[in-house]
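input
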Amino acid sequence: MRCRRELRQNRPRTKFRAKQTKFDLLYAITFTAGIGENDWSIRKAFCDCFEWLGVRIDNNKNREAVGNGPQVISAAGSSVTVMVIPTDEEYMIAHDVERLTKNN
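output
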């Protein structure tokens, strides 16, 4: 379990670091769908890795954000806005299937 969690945490960290250095500015981090939307501990671990960028989250807001709709979880004084935004993956899949089948 721990290895799986570390892999899930490290994969986005690597992609994130590459994008951050490429653009050199960071305004917001958005967690969405599955783990990002429902696992406060993953969000905390991810954000803790980027404290050097000024990313700070409010631990209470982070825990309360599970299943409570769109939330801003960044702490006061954070230089980056951190958000949790729920998605409706089933709707998006159905929407894409409908769009693709209409074009054929």
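quick obs: The two ends are 43 Å apart (CA to CA).
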